[in-house]
Design a protein that fits this description.
By secondary structure, the protein is an all-beta fold. It is 0% helix and 44% strand. The chain is built from no helices and 17 strands. The termini are far apart.
Length: 209
């Protein structure tokens, strides 16, 4: 349809310019051909490690979006490398690493600025081991029957409403779930949702060691 479209191209190493293209419709004619220029993207590399032992932490996902991580994960020694980054300010995010406290800047990420085609090295993340708790239970319908395949979520905001913990699980055939790897805190709220059912919000729940 006649409109203005933003066109981007995805590539493992190269990045495209970001432009908007107005498209007009005239009968069944094809819109004018556009030329999209691609240039080498930047890269960032570093290490995720145990702050007490200096041992690398493998399997931690690294990405430019907290909700949708890339396929980049730390290797057996905790090293990572993210490529194809645009030459402007970006934020680097880490997924949760089991047994470790999430970085204090988890929500907003770590800001990095990388020149076109350059590599920014030694962007390291020391993680502190932590004490964790869990929330377990069952999801049932109005008749008391277990609900399998429901998505269960918990969230807990701190007093500033800027940093929060969250966890999710899918119920098993008997409706059971477990929300693990939560730090000791007050004010956890739990909800469940399936294809046709919604739950009330339970909370606040105070979790102690």
């Amino acid at each position: 349809g006649a409109n203005e479209y933003q066109v981007e191209v995805s590539h493992e190493i190269l990045v495209s310019e970001r432009r908007r293209y107005p498209i007009t419709v005239s009968g069944n004619k094809t819109a004018p051909e556009i030329l999209i220029k691609m240039v080498p993207g930047g890269a960032v590399e570093g290490r995720v490690y145990d702050a007490l032992t200096n041992k690398g932490i493998p399997g931690v996902k690294i990405g430019l979006n907290r909700k949708k991580f890339s396929d980049t994960t730390t290797d057996i020694n905790g090293h990572y490398r993210v490529v194809g980054i645009r030459s402007r300010g970006q934020s680097l995010f880490l997924s949760h690493s089991k047994g470790y406290i999430d970085p204090s800047n988890l929500d907003n990420g770590t800001s990095v600025t990388i020149a076109q085609g350059a590599t920014l090295s030694s962007v390291d993340f020391p993680l502190q081991p932590g004490v964790f708790v869990a929330i377990a239970g069952k999801v049932i319908d109005e008749s008391g029957n277990p609900v399998a395949g429901a998505e269960v979520n918990t969230i807990c905001y701190d007093n500033t409403l800027t940093h929060y913990q969250s966890s999710e699980d899918t119920t098993k055939s008997d409706g059971s779930f477990i929300l693990a790897e939560l730090q000791v805190d007050n004010g956890f709220f739990v909800t469940a949702e399936s294809t046709s059912l919604l739950s009330e919000e339970i909370g606040p729940l105070a979790l102690t060691e």
